Amino acid sequence: RGTREPNIDAMLALCDYFNVSMEYLTGQENITPRYVDAEGLARLDGKSTFLPLYGCVSAGNGVFADDHIEEWIDIGNKNYSPDTHFMLRVRGDSMEPELHDGDLVIARKQNTAENNELVIAIVNGDEGVCKRFKKYQGSVALLSENPAYPPRYFSGNEIQDIPVRIVGK
């Protein structure tokens, strides 16, 4: 509104928060926001693909899943797009030896899967899990690779009532 002078520290904090340059924030430059790679380097070279890291997904007993982007990860020039793919960090050991605690997984956004495919599923609206998917007549199972974790079975009614839904593969 032009009623006061901008505070440079506040402007820098806004630039960091929105991942944009000072020129972009002040309207002097019409560019897309810059994203920060895993090493903290801002890049807009067109040779990199950045995917959103949405936090953690459980490979154990379940963790809260939300849609808050923690950061954008540079995965190089790959055949992925943030429109169709996302990343999550694995927490827990239920998918060992295939996936380990702390691993980053890339998932394609989709709500269906075939038998024995690895999926990202949301159980009860907020529990994100990474499991192997198995469909039976009238029910599904979410299976761990680690035998210490029992399968989780859901009947057709439970799939709807709990709910259980696939969000990625």
Give an account of the 3D structure.
This protein is mainly beta and 169 residues long. The protein has helices spanning 8-18, 22-25, 156-161; strands at residues 35-36, 42-43, 50-58, 63-64, 71-74, 85-91, 104-108, 118-123, 127-136, 139-143, 152-155, 164-168. Strands 4, 8, 9, 10, 11 and 12 form a 6-stranded antiparallel beta sheet that branches. A hairpin with a 5-residue loop joins β1 and β2. The protein is elongated and about 65 Å long.
Radius of gyration: 20 Å
| SS elements, strand count | 12
The proportion of residues in beta strands is 35-45%
> CA-to-CA gap between the ends?
47 Å
Mean pLDDT: 78
Structural class of the helices, strands and pairings? mainly beta
The level of helicity is: 10-25%
Unreliable spans are 30-45
What general outline do the C-alpha atoms trace? Answer: elongated
Order of helices and strands: HHEEEEEEEEEEEHE
The helix count comes to 3
How can the largest sheet be summarized? 6 strands, antiparallel
Structural key phrases:
single chain, 169 residues, 4-stranded mixed beta sheet
